[in-house]
Amino acid sequence: MTAPPQPDADDDERTEQLRAGLAGVRTRIEAACVSAGRDPEEITLVVVTKFFPAQDVVRLAALGVTDVGENRDQEAAQKVAQVAELIGDRPPGPPRLHFIGQLQTNKAASVARYADLVHSLDRARLARALSKAADRAGRDLGVLLQLNLDPDEEAAQGRGGLPPGQAGELADLVAGLPGLTLRGVMGVAPLPTDGSGAGAAELAARAFERLRAVFDGLRADHPGADMISAGMSGDLEQAVAAGATHLRVGSAILGTRPTRG
Ligand SMILES: *Cc1c(COP(=O)(O)O)cnc(C)c1O
After folding, report:
1. Is residue 48 in contact with ligand 1, taking CB distance under 6 Å?
2. d(Cα 4, Cα 66) in Å, to the nearest integer?
3. Fewer CB within 10 A of the end CB, N or C, for the chain?
4. Ligand 1, from 25, 48, 73: best to mutate by most atoms within 8 Å of Cβ?
5. How many other C-beta atoms can be found within 10 angstroms of the C-beta atom of residue 81?
6. Which of 100, 103, 146, 236 to mutate for ligand 1's pocket (most ligand atoms within 8 Å of CB)?
7. Quick one: how far is CA 194 from the chain centroid?
8. Roughly what angle, to the nearest 10 degrees, separates helices 200-221 and 167-175?
9. CB neighbours (10 Å) of residue 199?
10. Mean pLDDT of the chain
11. Which residues is 186 bridged to in the sheet?
12. pLDDT tens digits along 170-199
């Protein structure tokens, strides 16, 4: 076991930055809940730590963060191992890991070993690969169906996500696979394009309403589904208004992402 890192001046400064970032985002969530008539207790903040070091995850855990998000297998696997070593058995233990990025089928076995939840399930082949790996590892992996919420579905093909009309079919498949539990839906707001006439906030609001409608539809056959993952640094208010249970927030807390070395 490695000794816990000794606090130094830099560490204190970074911890204070993260504390301020978290406080700002929590204030925004509370205000959005007041506007929407919701209880902030219904909402889980998933802090997206991609590009940032394991030490930041340890600092965030010490500040009360229980859930973190990562979007690349190699980076996530390394960070999970580093965090486990840095935190050790100290309660409350390492934060839950949400895998939120586009996932190649050949990485499914790796992700199934360390992720608690996968938000980016968007095809049958990936569902089968995750199921097989989770079942072999004796794990129960929570999965969310990522929907393509772009009004121009074709243009958004490369960004991942299932056409909303196919969600029911994939949900039924997942429900019958060992090692997986269907938990809900995930969406990313479309990027504003010239000519649409709609601003980013309005596009996000419409996209998240659509996500919510698909979720409500799925619940008829899958009443155990309880998660709507929506909203990032720029549009968490619209997500709260539409009923999101999980917000994925990175830069508003950790700052502008460094370039990956
Ligand atoms: C990076 C990322 C986020 C966080 O984005 P911010 O704008 O930094 O809050 C949320 N969701 C997904 C899928 C991401 O890849």
Report:
1. yes
2. 19
3. C
4. 48
5. 12
6. 100
7. 28
8. 50
9. 10
10. 93
11. 146, 229
12. 999 999 999 999 999 999 999 887 666 678
Report the separation in Å between the CA atom of 253 and the middle of ligand 1, taken as the mean of its atom positions: 11
Give the number of other CB atoms < 10 A from CB of residue 202.
Answer: 13
Ligand 1, atom 6, residue with closest C-alpha:
250
Q: How far is the CA of 234 from the centre of ligand 1 (A)?
A: 9
| Residue 108 CA, distance from chain mean position | 16
- Residue 25 CA to ligand 1 centre (angstroms): 14
Q: For the packed helices 73-87 and 54-62, what is the interaxial angle rounded to 10 degrees?
A: 50
Tokens, residue 139? 């794990």
The atom number, within ligand 1, closest to the CA of 257 reads 8
Residue 131 pLDDT? 98
d(CA 175, ligand 1 centre) in Å: 27
Q: Residue 92 has what pLDDT? A: 82
Q: Return d(Cα 96, Cα 71) in angstroms, integer.
A: 14
* Centre of ligand 1 from the C-alpha of residue 20, in Å: 19
Predicted pLDDT at 172: 98
Q: Which amino acid is at 103?
A: L
Residue type, 126: L
Q: Which pLDDT value is given to residue 89?
A: 78
Q: What pLDDT score does 88 carry?
A: 85
108 contacts: CB under 8 Å, gap ≥ 6: 126, 129, 130, 132, 133
**Positions of the chain with pLDDT under 50:** 1, 261
Single out the residue of 249, 244, 214 nearest to residue 229, CA to CA. Answer: 244
